[in-house]
Amino acid sequence: MTPLPPPERYTFNCALDGSRWPYLVQLPPGEPRAILINLHGHYSDEWQGMTEDIYEDAFGKLRRECLARRWMYVCAWYGGNSWMGPIAEAGMVDLIAALRERWPRPPLHLMGGSMGGSATLVFAVRQPELLSGVIALCPAADVEQYYNWCWDRVAQNSTLANIANALRLHYSAACHDLQGELHLRSALQHAGRLTMPVYLRHGDADALIPVAWTRRLAARLKTLGRRVQYDEVPGGDHDSPIHGIDWAQVLDAVGGEAPA
Questions:
Q1: What does DSSP assign to residue 2?
Q2: Residues 125, 224 contacting (CB under 8 angstroms)
Q3: Mean pLDDT for each 10-residue chunk of the chain (260 residues)?
Q4: Where are the alpha helices (DSSP H) in the chain?
Q5: Among 12, 89, 164, 180, which one is least packed by beta carbons within 10 Å?
């Protein structure tokens, strides 16, 4: 198997807080036919989506699929465990603007799993005009309800306590109202703003982020006549959606072109 090219590392300025944020790029041969931005999970960073040999080499397979399609693949850091709060959202807008300066025309898709999938949906309802498609694996499709669900369980689960505190910290940053931001960033409650093709995948036995909100979002999008594909993994836990995933099918679902 031909080795994957090492990613190129860049930084950009997040105008809202003045800090420099890193991102990694795998360029395709020739001009990119599309751009795919991957958002990392909780406790991780921009290197997660570039790392081979984890999750049954899921990201290595995704990188190869992007190369075959001549897609540019970008892995972004977005403020740590931010869950796409206001500062993270502003930084992602800045990143997309930076990419568009050099590549103004290719369709741009956003994806992620867990916190990354949740953040993908949040950004999509907040900035739908910037995206051509979204891919969300095991997401919290309603961060408002998920925040309350986590807080009810903080005494029993340290990970849920960490997530709840991260949501509270990042959603109330820069004097933003926590409850107001939770409501504004719920994909389920603002499903009408998801005007682009959406791919969703969730395990039905996920104990970290319950599947119910994803099911409801998929059903609501279908009712709205949106282009949505929902795949549920029977008996699947939180990590199941990325195991054995067919990236060609997933990228096709959000309108991607087949390999040239």
A1: P
A2: no
A3: 94 94 97 98 98 97 97 98 97 98 97 98 98 98 98 97 98 94 98 98 98 98 98 98 97 72
A4: 58-69, 86-102, 115-126, 143-151, 158-171, 178-184, 212-223, 247-253
A5: 180
